[in-house]
Design a protein that fits this description.
Residues 422-485 form the TRAM domain. The chain is α/β, with parallel strands linked by helices. The protein contains 13 helices and 21 strands. The strands form six sheets. Strands 3-2-4-5-6-7 form a six-stranded parallel beta sheet, with helices on both faces. Strands 17-18-19-21-20 form a five-stranded mixed β-barrel. It has a three-stranded parallel beta sheet with strand order 9-12-13, with helices on both faces. Helix 8 runs parallel beside helix 9 and helix 12 (359-372) packs parallel to helix 13. The N and C termini lie far apart (47 Å). It binds S-adenosyl-L-homocysteine (SAH), iron/sulfur cluster and FE3-S4 cluster (F3S). Iron/sulfur cluster binds at residues 203, 205-207, 210, 212-213, 247-248, 284. S-adenosyl-L-homocysteine binds next to strand 15.
Length: 490
C-alpha cells in the first residue's frame, strides 16, 4: 500500500495509486475475508433513490458492475436507465487502450451539466482507470465536480464511501495500491440465463504493453471450495451457462502454498456439477498444461471453445512483449488441443504495430493465422500505456502502416471465420436459445457449444432452452439454421 498521506485537495481517504509500488510486488500473504456485511445504518442510505452504472472494458469489469449493483440494491437504491432520474451515476472504467480512456473523459464532460443541474447527484469513477495515478490527478484537476473515485481492490467499501461522499464537501478518493485481498460473500446482481464468476483476480504476467497487472493487482486465486460452492449455488438457481473469469484462468492455483490444485483439477470438479454449460476466459498459452487438455476433452458441460490470445506470430515481437512462449510452442499447443478436441473452436487476441514491428514480423502473424485458422479474433492497434515497459520503447511504425496491417489481418481472419462456418453447413448442432435477434424480433438467437451465434425462426417459448438446429447458411460472423427439435444438454 502506498505510504503517501492525504493531499489537501482530497478527503482524508486518499491513498494514491502508484505504478512504482505495484511493480515492487512481493509475496505478501493473501487474506480471504468471509465476514463481509453492510452496516445497518448504511442499508437505508439509498431508500427511494436511483442508480445508473456505465460499464466499459472486459467481462471482469462487467462482473464487478454486478457486484456494485448488488451492493447498491442492498443499500436500498433502485436501478434506472434515465440519467436525469439517477441520484448516483458510476462510470466503471477500462484502461487497456487509450481510446477506452478517451471515452470516459468525454463522458465526464457530458456529465458535468447533469451535476450542475442537480448538485445532489453523486458522480463516481471506478474500475481500472482509477488505479492509475495520472488519471486520478487529471480528474482532480480537470473534473473537480466528480464526487467519488474508488479502485478495483476496494469495491466492498462502496457503501461507506457513498456515505462519505454524501456528507463530504470534497472529492472522496479511496484507491488501494495494496495487492488486494479476496473478499467473499459480496452480493451480486445477476440476470438472465448466463452467469459470470471470478475464479481468480489480478495478473502476474506483466506483458510489456499491458496495464492490467498494475490495475488489477497480483494474481490470487479463490479457494476451490468457495468457487465450487458458488457454482453449485448458480446451478441451484437454474443458470444454464457459467463463465469462469480470470486474466489467466489457467494460472489458477499457482499461488496456493498449502495445496496442489490447478485449473485442470477445478474443471474436473466443476464437470461433475449439474449445470449445462461451463466456459472460461482468458487462458494464457504458457500455463495451458496437458492435464487441462485431457479434462477439456471429456466435454460434457465443458464447452468446445478456447480463447487463446497469441498477440503476435513473430518470436522477436513475442520476446519484446515478454509473452514467455514462442510461435513454435504456441503452434504445438494448438496442435495438441485440436487433436484432443477435434471440433474445438479457437479464438484469439492479436496486437498489430507493437513498437518496432517490421513488415516481415507482421507477415509472421499472418502466416500463423493461416496455420491456426481461428474461428474469430479480437484485433487491436498497439496503444502505449504510461508506466508500462513498452511505452518506453521506440515506436517507429507510422499509424497508417499500423492501420493497414489491422485491415489486412482482419481480412485474413475473416477468410477462416467463413470457411470454419461453412464446414457446419448441413450439420445439426446444439444451441442454447438466448433471446430474440437484435435486428429482427421474429428471429431467435442462440449459441452453439463452440460459442458461435446462430439465428433461426422459432417460438419465444424456446428462449432459455436447448434446441437442435440444422445449419443452412454460413455468413462470416454468424450462422443461419432451422429448428429440428429439442436437445437434451449433456
Ligand atoms: N488477460 C488477457 C487479456 C486482457 S486484455 C490475456 O492475456 O489474454 C485483452 C487484450 O487487449 C489483450 O489480449 C491484448 O490483445 C489487448 N491489449 C492489452 N494491452 C494492449 C495495448 N497496450 N494496446 C493494444 N492492445 C492491448
Ligand atoms: Fe495483460 Fe499479459 Fe496479464 Fe493478459 S497476461 S492481462 S495481456 S499482462
Ligand atoms: Fe480493461 Fe481493466 Fe478489463 S483495463 S480490459 S477493464 S481488466
Amino acid at each position: 500500500m502506498s505510504t503517501k498521506q492525504s493531499q489537501k485537495d482530497y478527503s482524508i481517504y486518499f491513498q494514491p495509486p502508484s505504478l512504482t509500488d505495484a511493480k515492487k510486488r512481493g509475496k505478501e500473504d493473501i487474506k480471504v475475508h468471509y465476514d463481509f456485511d453492510i452496516p445497518l445504518e448504511l442499508k437505508e442510505l439509498g431508500k427511494d433513490k436511483f442508480y445508473l452504472i456505465q460499464t466499459y472494458g472486459c467481462q471482469m469489469n462487467e462482473h464487478d458492475t454486478e457486484t456494485i449493483m448488488g451492493l447498491l440494491e442492498q443499500m436500498g437504491y433502485q436501478p434506472t436507465g434515465d440519467r436525469h432520474q439517477a441520484d448516483i451515476i458510476l462510470l466503471n472504467t477500462c484502461a487497456v487502450r487509450e481510446n477506452a480512456e478517451d471515452k470516459v473523459f468525454g463522458e465526464l464532460g457530458h456529465l458535468k451539466h447533469l451535476k450542475t443541474a442537480k448538485p445532489s447527484l453523486i458522480l463516481g469513477v471506478c474500475g481500472c482507470m482509477s488505479q492509475e495515478e495520472a488519471v486520478v490527478n487529471r480528474i482532480s484537476r480537470k473534473h473537480p465536480f466528480v464526487d467519488l473515485i474508488f479502485g478495483t481492490h476496494n469495491i466492498h467499501r462502496l457503501p461507506n464511501l457513498i456515505k462519505e461522499a454524501l456528507f463530504s464537501k470534497e472529492m472522496v478518493v479511496e484507491v488501494w495500491s495494496k495487492e488486494g485481498d479476496i473478499i467473499e460473500n459480496l452480493p451480486k446482481k445477476r440476470e438472465g440465463m448466463k452467469a459470470w464468476l471470478n475464479i481468480m483476480y489480478g495478473c502476474d504476467k506483466f506483458c510489456t504493453y499491458c496495464i492490467v497487472p498494475y490495475t488489477r493487482g497480483k494474481e490470487r486465486s479463490r479457494r476451490p471450495q468457495d468457487v465450487i460452492a458458488e457454482v453449485r449455488e448458480l446451478a441451484r438457481q437454474g443458470f444454464k451457462e457459467i463463465m469462469l473469469l480470470g486474466q489467466n484462468v489457467n494460472a489458477y492455483g499457482k499461488d496456493f502454498e498449502d495445496i496442489s490444485y490447478r485449473f485442470g483439477d477445478l474443471m474436473e470438479d466443476i464437470r461433475k456439477i449439474d449445470l449445462p454449460r461451463v466456459r472460461f476466459t482468458t487462458s494464457h498459452p504458457r500455463d495451458f498444461d496437458d492435464h487441462l487438455i485431457e479434462v477439456l476433452a471429456k466435454k460434457g458441460n465443458l464447452m468446445d471453445h478456447i480463447h487463446l490470445p497469441v498477440q503476435s506470430g513473430s518470436n522477436e515481437i513475442l520476446k519484446k512483449m515478454t509473452r514467455k512462449y514462442t510461435r513454435e510452442h504456441y503452434l504445438e499447443l494448438v496442435g495438441k488441443i485440436k487433436q484432443a478436441i477435434p471440433n474445438v473452436a479457437l479464438t484469439t487476441d492479436i496486437i498489430v504495430g507493437f513498437p518496432g514491428e517490421t513488415d516481415e514480423q507482421f507477415e509472421e502473424t499472418i502466416t500463423l493465422v493461416k496455420e491456426v485458422q481461428y474461428d474469430s479474433a479480437y484485433t487491436f492497434i498497439y496503444s502505449a500505456r504510461e508506466g508500462t515497459p513498452a511505452a518506453a520503447m521506440e515506436d517507429n511504425v507510422p499509424y497508417e502502416v499500423k492501420r493497414d496491417r489491422l485491415i489486412r489481418l482482419n481480412d485474413t481472419l475473416n477468410v477462416y471465420s467463413k470457411r470454419n462456418n461453412e464446414r457446419l453447413l448441413g450439420q445439426t448442432v446444439e444451441v442454447l436459445v438466448e433471446g430474440e435477434s437484435k435486428y429482427n424480433p421474429d428471429i431467435l438467437a442462440g449459441r452453439t457449444r463452440t460459442n458461435k451465434l446462430v439465428h433461426f425462426a422459432g417460438s419465444k417459448e424456446l428462449i432459455g432452452q436447448f434446441v437442435n438446429i440444422k445449419i443452412v447458411e454460413a455468413p462470416t460472423f454468424y450462422l443461419k439454421g432451422e429448428l429440428v427439435g429439442m436437445a437434451v444438454a449433456n
